[in-house]
Every structure is written in C-alpha cells, then in structure tokens.
Design brief:
single chain, 237 residues, alpha/beta, TIM Barrel, eight-stranded parallel beta barrel, 10 helices, 40% helix, 18% strand, binds SN-glycerol-1-phosphate, transferase, GGGP/HepGP_synthase_sf
C-alpha cells in the first residue's frame, strides 16, 4: 500500500515534467539518498512529458509516484499516485470535483491501494497553484491549525501537505499545524534552498519536499537530503 510506503519518507524530490533536467542532474537526484521521487507540477502538464520523465526514471531503483493534477495526464506504471485535495479553497473542483470526474471515467479500473490522498493547505498566495485553485492562502496560525484539526480528527486523512511552493514558509505556521497532528502525516514543501531552512522544516514535517532547487542548483538540492535526514523530528502531539 502506498500509505505504508510513504510512512517511511523523510525527504522527497518533486520533479516537474514541464522543466528540463539533464541526465547528469537526474542521476545526482536519484542517487542522492532521497526516499522517493514525486513527479508533478502545476502548468503545462502533459501525458507525453510525464511518460518521458517516467522512462528516464525507470533505470533507478527509487520509488516514483505521480502527483495527479490533470485527469488527461495519468500515466500508468508508477509505484503509486498522490491525489491532492485542496482544503483552503471554495472551488469544489479542486476539493473533490475533478476526483469525481476521474471516478466516472475510470471507475473500477482505479488501483485504490496505490493511491494516497493529500489534504493540501496552500499558504503562499503568490504561487501558481494558489492562483489556479483560488486558495484562501492568507491564513493566520489559528485558521491554519483548524485545517489540521479537520484533517486529523474529522476527516482522518493520511497526509496534510503544507504547500508554500516557491517561497520558504513561516515556521510558526508549520509548527501550529504540526501541533494538531498525531496520526496524520505532515508534508512540507516550499522554497528550501539552505541548510538552515531544511533543518527548520525537518523539525516539524514528517516529510520534506524539495522541488525548485533541483533546477536552480542541483548540488545544493542533493545536500538537502542529509540536512533533512540528520535533523530530529520533534515529538508529535
Ligand atoms: C512544490 O512543495 C513543492 O509543490 C516544493 O516546493 O519547488 O518551492 O521547493 P519548491
């Protein structure tokens, strides 16, 4: 089951099929000691680009999962599929609407055990994903914590993903969210470029996601693996 696999992820890289990455950089990323590769992005996502990246990733032993963002770009053959549901939006399409469409299209063919639901809380109003999903990203600590409470106690979802995509987040916000979570796993992603940033979020997040740095400084991106893994996670609850 994907949920069990993800329970062991401390650090993951997110690769965007719409961005260029040399073979050498891909090799460095895949041999970095990270726990998994997520293939996913916000715009320009096509079946063909995902398929091409998947083919290049196949020669490495690392688990590779697809974060599904477009019903027309679901490529078979991944180790699992991450299904985002944006919580801080009023647009039903991004909460469960697109999901229903996928169920209507694929029905019984969906490999449920290979799916993992991610409850997204988007906190960078300037990010593409925030604009696309019309997220209410300007939350304060109390509001952010209430989303965490919703996911942990009411929905009982497996993962809450704090998404700061492109910007390093506010530690106090991430800590406030983390304090509400016991069973739900916390993913953090956004703007990690330095050791200090990696260590800061690794204290609160079970899984730290690094994306953009792969494309701007692959050597540093590789270093984030040990920065995260050498940091002790604070006790939950
Ligand atoms: C993006 O959360 C990931 O979806 C990682 O964010 O690209 O800013 O590292 P960055």
């Amino acid at each position: 089951m994907l949920e069990q696999m993800a329970a062991g992820w401390r650090h993951v890289f997110k690769l965007d099929p719409n961005r260029r990455l040399s073979d050498l950089s891909l090799e460095k990323v895949c041999q970095s000691g990270t726990d998994a590769i997520i293939v996913g992005g916000t715009d320009g996502i096509t079946f063909e680009d995902i398929w091409k990246l998947q083919k290049r990733l196949r020669k490495y032993l690392l688990p590779c999962v697809l974060e599904v963002s477009d019903i027309n770009a679901i490529v078979p053959g991944f180790d699992g599929y991450l299904i985002p549901s944006v919580l801080n939006t009023d647009q039903a399409r991004w909460i469960h609407g697109a999901h229903l469409k996928a169920i209507q299209r694929y029905g019984c063919g969906i490999p449920w055990k290979q799916l993992l639901l991610l409850g997204y809380v988007i906190l960078n109003p300037e990010s593409k994903v925030s604009r696309l999903t019309e997220a209410n990203a300007g939350l304060d600590e109390e509001a952010a914590a209430s989303y965490a409470c919703l996911v942990e106690h009411l929905f009982k979802w497996p993962v809450l993903y704090v998404e700061y995509s492109g910007k390093f987040g506010d530690e106090n916000m991430v800590r406030a969210i983390r304090r509400q979570l016991k069973k739900t796993r916390l993913f953090y992603g956004g703007g990690i470029t330095t050791r200090r940033q990696a260590e800061t979020m690794a204290k609160w997040a079970d899984t730290v996601v690094v994306g953009n740095l792969v494309y701007t400084n692959v050597e540093k991106a590789v270093q984030t693996v040990s920065w995260v893994k050498e940091t002790n996670l604070q006790e939950k609850g």
